[in-house]
Write a structure and sequence with these properties.
By secondary structure, the protein is mostly helical. It contains 4 helices and no strands. It has helices at 19-31, 39-66, 72-89, 96-117. Helix 2 runs antiparallel to helix 3 and helix 3 (72-89) runs antiparallel to helix 4.
Length: 124
């Protein structure tokens, strides 16, 4: 199965060793066809993803804050962070839908973090 995440560069902080287990969890959650877990299991998965989403959002916020105001990546990061705040303010539920929503959020935050940490192409 193809990963929904772009590969980070080795020098990127987005290449943290803590990233791989969460990417695997996100990939697994988003691949569910007809999950049949107990509500407490869905809630535990959503809780894990929520905590990690908060950590990745903090990284996105830090990188965006360090960019010059003229860099459009900062504005895009703010859009993603606003959406993250909104989603994270929703209460956790013991449902597959809640776990999937948190998984999508982690994926979106990692994608934004990767965009913030990749070098800009050289001007011609």
């Amino acid at each position: 199965m193809d990963s929904p995440f772009p590969p980070p560069t080795a020098a990127s902080p987005a290449a943290s060793p803590h990233r791989a287990p969460y990417e695997a969890l996100v990939t697994a959650v988003l691949a569910w066809k007809n999950p049949d877990l107990e509500p407490r299991d869905y809630e535990q998965i959503a809780l894990q993803l929520t905590g990690h989403a908060r950590a990745v959002a903090a990284g996105v916020r830090d990188y965006a804050a360090a960019l010059p105001k003229s860099d459009g990546r900062g504005a895009l990061a703010e859009v993603v962070l606003r959406e993250a705040r909104s989603r994270l303010s929703a209460p956790l539920e013991g449902t597959a839908r809640c776990a999937r929503n948190r998984a999508r959020l982690v994926r979106a935050l990692y994608m934004r973090l990767d965009r913030l940490t990749e070098p800009l192409p050289a001007a011609p």
